[in-house]
Amino acid sequence: MNTRREFLLKSGLFTAGTILLPSCAFASTTVAQHYGVQLYSFRDEMAKDALGTLEKIASVGFKKIESARSGKGHYYGLSPKEMKEACDALGMKLTSGHVALDDNFDKTMEEAVTSGQEYLICSSMPSKGQTVDNYKKVAEAFNKAGEACKKLGIKFGYHNHEYEFESENGTILYDVLMDNTQADLVHMELDLGWVIVGGKDPLDYFKKYPGRFPLWHLKDMNMTKKESTEFGKGGLDIPSMMAHQEASGVEHIFIEQEEYASTPMESMRHNMKFLGTL
């Protein structure tokens, strides 16, 4: 069996020239250990150098990651097995992954089992139509996907954007999903930033559907540009969110940022520093 050092040497993640980051890069390491990161935050870097980028993410202190679909597949050009081995070697866990609920979903589930991840998260509506009827059909499809995943020992879920909080005849479409999916089969990943862009308050959903949100995307939003920003610069009341974790049932909090003041890594360090002050 390969040791951790042997794997790192073979994969190029650990060499005699391993990058030594300044001490300030490790200032928020303890904070980062309590959170995960959505790899879409580092999408360009992952596309160019998946293994090297994973090493840098690990150096910040993150222990959990969530993958996202890319032009190179679900694991940025790595096989599911290689992704698992890389994370194991770096002391991280591939906990979740964003995927599509499409004709290739059987293969997607097989990959998830091989990668060792716990969750498969559908990252967008599988069918168009901002109507109650369509959302009921989607809920039925989600329940079936959840059942299929459960048989394989993985969990299925859904990640919202802002459009799910639109209404038809006074009925909020996201609520249709919540009311028509089985809690033991469909595990909601609530993107807190998109909730507030959609004009709603995450705390209201914690109260209405207690324990239904085992995963979060913690994302601050510039409410003028409707895009993500560094923590504390946008419209999300992060301290309030963090104070209500128990009500939501959250187990995994993934930080995601899609736009940056400088670079993805600098933004992530800012976010860690912000969380450290709470």
Q: At CATH's second level, what is the architecture?
A: Alpha-Beta Barrel
* Count of distinct strands: 12
How would you describe the shape? Answer: globular
Low-pLDDT windows of residues: 1-5, 14-27
* CATH level 4 superfamily: Divalent-metal-dependent TIM barrel enzymes
CATH topology: TIM Barrel
Task: Name the structural class.
Answer: alpha/beta
CATH class: Alpha Beta
How much helix, percentage-wise, in residues? 40-55%
Question: What's the story with the biggest beta sheet?
Answer: 8 strands, parallel, barrel
Q: How many domains is the backbone divided into?
A: 1
Strand fraction? 15-25%
First-residue to last-residue Cα separation: 42 Å
List keywords for this structure.
278 residues; alpha/beta; TIM Barrel; 8-stranded parallel beta barrel; two-stranded antiparallel ribbon; 12 strands; 41% helix; disordered N terminus
Overall description:
By secondary structure, the chain is of the alpha/beta class. The protein has one domain (27-276): TIM Barrel. It contains 13 helices and twelve strands. Strands 1-2-3-4-5-8-9-12 form an eight-stranded parallel beta barrel. Strands 6-7 form a two-stranded antiparallel ribbon. It has a two-stranded antiparallel ribbon with strand order 10-11. A hairpin with a 2-residue loop joins strand 6 and strand 7 (171-172). The chain starts with a helix and ends with a helix. Mean pLDDT is 92; it is low at 1-5 and 14-27.
